[in-house]
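Sample intake sheet
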Amino acid sequence: NYRWIILAVCFFTITFTNGLTLGGLVVFDRELLDYLSEVTGGEVLRQELKLKDAITLWSTAVFAFIAGIIIDRVGVRALMISGMFLLSATFYFYAQSDSLADMYVIHIFQGMVLSMSGMVINVVLISKWFNDNRGLAIGVLLAGTSVGNGIFPQINTYLLTISDGDWRQVMIWLALIPLAYIPVLFAFIKEKPEDVAVKEDNQTSNDFKASSIEGGFTLQQTLRSANFWFLSVMAFCTFYSILAMIGHVFLMLDGEGYSPQISATGVSIIFIGGFIGKVISGKLAEMIGRKIVLVGGVAMMLLGSLLIVSSIFYKNPLLIWIGLMLYGTGWGGLYTLIQLLVADLFGLIAIGKIMGVINIIDTIGGGLGPIITAVIYDSTQNYLLPFLVISALLVIALISSSMLKIDDKAIEQSR
């Protein structure tokens, strides 16, 4: 069945785009701080370095809605291939960069990559290909973000080790990965089931197309829905929280005296948990209820955050590792549900535009997370207060998720 080939290709696409631009880059922070401090002749603050992470996500927000319009009108294939070419170019020019300003410009283009080949475009494609088993498919797809963000910190740390800390050489090596993957996208990506002569589990592609149209919301109707805003507030708060943690856990553990490999493992633990949460949550939501799984994911993330805060008080490493695993697992579950609920609550008519708007909101939060955490750290020289801010935002997310109105029976009947 061709839709599973589509899922596999999208899985690896999102593994590379997210892993290379987000999780994989944090292990370069120590080398970049040292290099930039050396060339400027003064200390480079973490908030200055972490601004590049925020720029990536804010750039994604700027281009997300435009990408959504293009997706709805002309499809995904050309965008995905162009995004991979651009991703390769960003790593090539990263290796040539000599200043923070150079890096800031590169991260603008990495944000474009996430709009062209990242989460939104892949979720839209999978939603078009999967009517039944959509929850499972989206969960498996989004597990790719955890795989990428989990393995690339380890890969990049290893590459830094064998290159004697030559981060420029490692960037050149990484530029080859998206180039090698472009032929796969060209060969296997199809826009919709009608493009291949197959039938989808007891439904023809025409049946699929009809069911996708019925009950769909326009963008204007969606913006008037309370569910949209509850979902958006939750997305904003949780994206702030996850990207603040991802962006700083390596530096936090490094500051506690852990080796680079152990510090990178802290990042990987979040994404291992995220992988587990993403794989099981989509199908589980369709079995026991979307709201139960969603609220449970936010609650688990909040509990993990509180354990990490406690570890700062009590200097207990066990609390850090347990907290990071809960944090990542909860995030994975709710992240899948956000994408699933966009299709389930608002339909497929304008899914590209709707996901583009939500992507603008959540990436603004995600961009603020690392930079505000860095600003607070630079002023306090401690991660306690910024992590308390994360916990407070997760309380808001928990309240917002509990206010969503979700009728599982009506959703299943509309498919």
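Comment: The longest helix spans residues 226-255. The chain has 17 helices and no strands.
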